[in-house]
Specification:
Radius of gyration: 28 Å
Helix content: 40-55%
Strand content: 5-15%
Order of helices and strands: EEEHHHHHHHHEEEHHHHHH
Largest sheet: 3 strands, antiparallel
Strand order of the largest sheet: 1-2-3
Number of helices: 14
Structural class: mainly alpha
Number of strands: 6
Length: 356
């Protein structure tokens, strides 16, 4: 509460707010009622962490979310997806002062994302990336953030008001689609067209397609591969930078080994598209996604996306091997078996073969 005192014919008010104002604000009013009303309104704003423009000059320079996100990305080795998300979040909420980051702010931020029409899964990814950043901030010394409000959000916090749910893609390759894709990659003309689809680095695209179907690796895990990650004698690929930040070893089939030997890369990157800069990862992913959309469209594969190949490859591991869920999760990198089962919806005809 502000203190006040009578000084001659006027009333003097002293307003203090630790963490918001570095020094007290002194105000003078002729009428006590006028002073009481003004100071009450000012204190409500300060309680919310808002400093009116008239007092910006005395406000403490606040540490912003953008600053701590930049410090976190420089200090900690984080998953590449988190890196991309935090770079986007810096541009959108980076100006928010750290002193304002409380449970109420978290609810308001999530509410705005719902209004913008983001899917629940997208909201969870953004909240998760920022939550991991704030965990690091809380553990750091000399911070005004003593607890991470994103860690106490209720279950289903990302559910939209209209009950919108995540769309679980279960798209797999239909009969003939793999053959038609290979035809396009090998330079054959698409059906109904006069010319073949012009493809730069067709050899690299064929290797990428093979690795996707044979290893269940993600697009970014594939195009960032370097030759020293591939051990052909041991039939493994060692992934250091993955979506969830955990390194893993991926066994490679004889088909994948043949494709890798055909490229005969002995050093450097397997693919020349990426320049090694983490800031260009999202751009490269978008560019390759567009390229594969053109290839799939030319092959007549309606609504197929490159990530669907991961779903196809994971399902094939269930169908064609005797490995259990745990073993397959070590190959694919799924952290939860619930998520793995989402990918591994087997064809009914294959399941029917096991019935009497």
């Amino acid at each position: 509460m502000a203190s006040k005192r009578k000084r001659g014919e006027s009333w003097e008010y002293i307003v203090k707010r630790k963490g918001v104002l570095p020094k007290p604000i002194y105000l003078t009013f002729k009428l006590e009622a006028e002073g009481d009303a003004y100071v009450a309104k000012l204190e409500r704003l300060l309680d919310a962490g808002i400093v009116p423009d008239d007092f910006k000059g005395v406000a403490k320079a606040s540490t912003t979310l953008g600053q701590v996100m930049a410090q976190y990305m420089d200090a900690v080795h984080i998953a590449v997806d988190d890196l991309s998300l935090l770079q986007v979040l810096r541009g959108r909420i980076g100006s928010v002062g750290l002193e304002r980051v409380n449970y109420q702010w978290a609810e308001e931020w999530i509410s705005l994302m719902r209004v913008d029409g983001l899917a629940p899964s997208t909201i969870r990814h953004k909240v998760g990336a920022l939550a991991r950043c704030l965990d690091w901030v809380v553990r750091s010394s000399n911070t005004i953030l003593v607890a991470n409000p994103l860690r106490i959000l209720p279950k289903r916090y990302a559910t939209t008001a209209d009950g919108r749910k995540d769309v679980e893609r279960d798209r797999r390759l239909h009969d003939g689609e793999e053959e038609r894709i290979w035809a396009i990659l090998n330079g054959e003309k698409p059906e109904g067209r006069q010319r073949a689809l012009p493809l730069q680095d067709a050899v690299a695209l064929r290797l990428m397609f093979t690795l996707a179907l044979e290893t269940a690796m993600r697009m970014r895990e594939i195009y960032t591969l370097t030759a020293d990650q591939v051990d052909i004698p041991k039939r493994t690929i060692y992934l250091v930078k993955t979506k969830n930040g955990n390194a893993r070893q991926v066994p490679i089939s004889s088909v994948a080994i043949f494709a890798l030997r055909e490229c005969s890369v002995t050093s450097g990157s397997l693919f020349s598209w990426w320049d090694g800069d983490a800031k260009s990862l999202q751009y490269m992913t978008d560019k390759l996604s567009h390229q594969w959309s053109r290839i799939f469209s030319a092959a007549g594969c309606k609504d197929l996306r490159f990530h669907d190949l991961r779903h196809e490859a994971t399902s094939r591991l269930f169908e064609r091997t005797k490995m259990n869920d745990i073993q397959i999760s070590r190959i694919t990198g799924h952290k939860s078996l619930q998520m793995l089962r989402r990918y591994a919806n087997l064809r009914g005809s294959d399941l029917a073969d096991h019935l009497w």
